[in-house]
Design brief:
Shape: globular
Helix content: 55-70%
Radius of gyration: 20 Å
Strand content: 5-15%
Number of strands: 5
């Protein structure tokens, strides 16, 4: 909901600020919102591989993707851009499945396909004048797909810390480039962009990473696929975009896809290897019971080797090979 609302609100600012500077302000706003909560967190030293994963997330998710999105908003109606953002679901699912070997399953694949059909229903509503904007949105979705697949399993950093890193590093770089290219935007635009970034990106990214770690990147993105339709609905009132029967049908189809994904179940006997990582500990969760876990410090803990059979999703505890549903 928060990210969906950010798209039509950002559209209001694109005429008064350069695209690169505006993208930087959005992510600096995200950092401002989340940083106070990071200062009190326990920290541990990440591995070089984990630092490299965070770097990828910052570059693609915090640096390139928002610039492409703002450039698209400068050329294309907010409602069209919002709806095309469902391509992020496809990018995330493909990357998570092919490169991370994340198990999706037949039912979830069906749900993802149905969500994609909802987007295809809207193809061609913007005419030839928005082709460049559509390509820019597709590029942004590819970058966020890479970001999503990486951060869903990056348990060396808390969701808030990842959001802060994206905001400070990518936001500062983009803002500096934007100021050099187009100059400083008006003060009211700066304040508005920071506010939109705090809620639509800061809170949204933190919630997304937390949820994706619990249910997997592909499934998380299938639910997140409602964001474009929320953005499209708000664009009717905020940006004056037209409401059509086609948009209503597409929303209904995508909602059905989300329900299919959300009701998917998967269970089989599997082996857990010992692993150390940091995230919130839930004593009622099967992998956090006293016989399966050793608390090291704060939320940082060690999972002991374990073999069992129970329903599960491709969360941070279940990134093992699958040969069957």
């Amino acid at each position: 909901m928060l990210f969906g609302a950010a798209t039509p609100l950002t559209k209001l600012l694109v005429d008064d600020a350069g695209s690169v500077a505006l993208a930087g302000l959005l992510y600096l706003g995200a950092a401002i919102a989340v940083t106070p909560f990071v200062l009190s967190e326990h920290r541990h030293v990440p591995t070089p591989k984990q630092r490299g994963q965070l770097f990828l997330a910052v570059v693609f998710g915090g640096g390139v993707a928002p610039v492409l999105l703002v450039l698209a908003l400068d050329r294309t109606p907010a409602g069209t851009v919002a709806l095309l953002l469902n391509l992020e679901l496809v990018a995330t699912a493909v990357i998570a499945s092919v490169f991370l070997r994340e198990h999706i399953g037949r039912r979830s694949l069906l749900g993802i396909a149905v969500v994609l059909v909802g987007s295809i229903v809207l193809t061609g509503t913007g005419g030839t004048s928005v082709v460049v904007g559509e390509l820019l949105v597709a590029g942004a979705c590819l970058c966020w797909g890479i970001d999503n697949a990486v951060t869903a399993g990056l348990d060396a950093y808390s969701p808030k810390r990842i959001t802060t890193a994206k905001g400070i590093v990518a936001g500062s770089v983009n803002l500096a480039l934007g100021l050099a290219l187009t100059g400083a935007p008006p003060v009211h635009v700066v304040l508005a962009a920071l506010a939109i970034g705090a809620i639509g990106y800061g809170a949204s990214i933190t919630l997304w990473i937390t949820g994706a770690r619990l249910i997997g990147a592909a499934r998380g993105q299938a639910i997140f696929a409602l964001a474009p339709f929320i953005g499209a609905a708000l664009s009717w009132a905020i940006n004056g975009d037209g409401l059509s029967a086609r948009i209503a049908v597409a929303f209904g189809i995508s909602l059905l896809g989300v329900i299919i994904v959300g009701t998917a179940h998967h269970a089989h006997a599997h082996q857990h290897t010992a692993i150390e990582h940091a995230h919130a500990i839930d004593p009622t969760e099967i992998h956090h019971r006293p016989e399966a876990i050793e608390i090291i410090e704060g939320d940082y803990h060690r999972h002991l080797a374990l073999a069992h059979n129970h329903p599960h999703l491709p969360d941070i505890h279940h990134r093992h090979p699958h040969r069957h549903e």
